Amino acid sequence: MASEIGEGADVVANIVRSRPATRDIAQRIGIGSAPLCVVCGRGSSGRAGVFLRYLVETRLRLPVSASAPSVITAFRTPLMLRDALFIVISQSGRSPDLVAATRSARASGARTIAIVNAMSSPLTDEAEFVIPIEAGQEHSIAATKTVIGSMAASVGLVAELAEDHALRSALDRLPERLHRALALDWSEIANDLAKASAVFVAARGLALGSAGEIALKFSEILRLPSIGVSAAELQHGPRAALSSRTPVVMMRLMDETAASVDALAEELREQKIAVHICGGPHGSLAWLTEDDPATDPVAMLVPAYRMIEQTARACGFDPDRPPRLRKITETF
Question: What are the residue boundaries of the SIS domain, all occurrences included (predicted)?
Answer without folding.
Answer: 25-167, 189-322
